[in-house]
Amino acid sequence: MLAAVVCWATYGVVSKSKGKDINPVALTYYSFLFCCIFSIPLLILEKPWTFIFKIPTSAWIATLYMSVFASVIGYLVQQMAIKEIGPSRASIFINLVPVFSIVLAVCILGEELVPVKILTAILIITGVYICQKAS
């Protein structure tokens, strides 16, 4: 977990310093291109051709949705934010992920909106607001 945090922080700082002259779309494209290239050996080790045709269409659609919206568009927006407001201010908004998770879980999965979830969302939004005001 610590390594992931260090990698994410390094990514944000390097994106700001080295990415100021690079279009966020190009930066996102090359980031995902290299991730795909480095993932190919792992894909070969997993031998997906033995079960790839048994995967239901709904799983393919869900995977495509997560790839495009949750990953590519998310990183693109993050790159645009880093370019505009800097990595420290842009990274504050990652804390809103649980709030959106609560909203989507209630709307899509029909989960119950209990007081602790409401309190959690309020605390997170308040924290993000305070951090943004401070910077």
Automatic annotation (TrEMBL):
<feature type="transmembrane region" description="Helical">
    <location>
        <begin position="26"/>
        <end position="45"/>
    </location>
</feature>
<dbReference type="InterPro" id="IPR050638">
    <property type="entry name" value="AA-Vitamin_Transporters"/>
</dbReference>
<feature type="transmembrane region" description="Helical">
    <location>
        <begin position="90"/>
        <end position="108"/>
    </location>
</feature>
<dbReference type="GO" id="GO:0016020">
    <property type="term" value="C:membrane"/>
</dbReference>
<dbReference type="InterPro" id="IPR037185">
    <property type="entry name" value="EmrE-like"/>
</dbReference>
<protein>
    <recommendedName>
        <fullName>EamA domain-containing protein</fullName>
    </recommendedName>
</protein>
<feature type="transmembrane region" description="Helical">
    <location>
        <begin position="57"/>
        <end position="78"/>
    </location>
</feature>
<keyword id="KW-0812">Transmembrane</keyword>
<keyword id="KW-0472">Membrane</keyword>
<dbReference type="Pfam" id="PF00892">
    <property type="entry name" value="EamA"/>
</dbReference>
<feature type="transmembrane region" description="Helical">
    <location>
        <begin position="114"/>
        <end position="131"/>
    </location>
</feature>
<keyword id="KW-1133">Transmembrane helix</keyword>
<dbReference type="InterPro" id="IPR000620">
    <property type="entry name" value="EamA_dom"/>
</dbReference>
<feature type="domain" description="EamA">
    <location>
        <begin position="1"/>
        <end position="130"/>
    </location>
</feature>
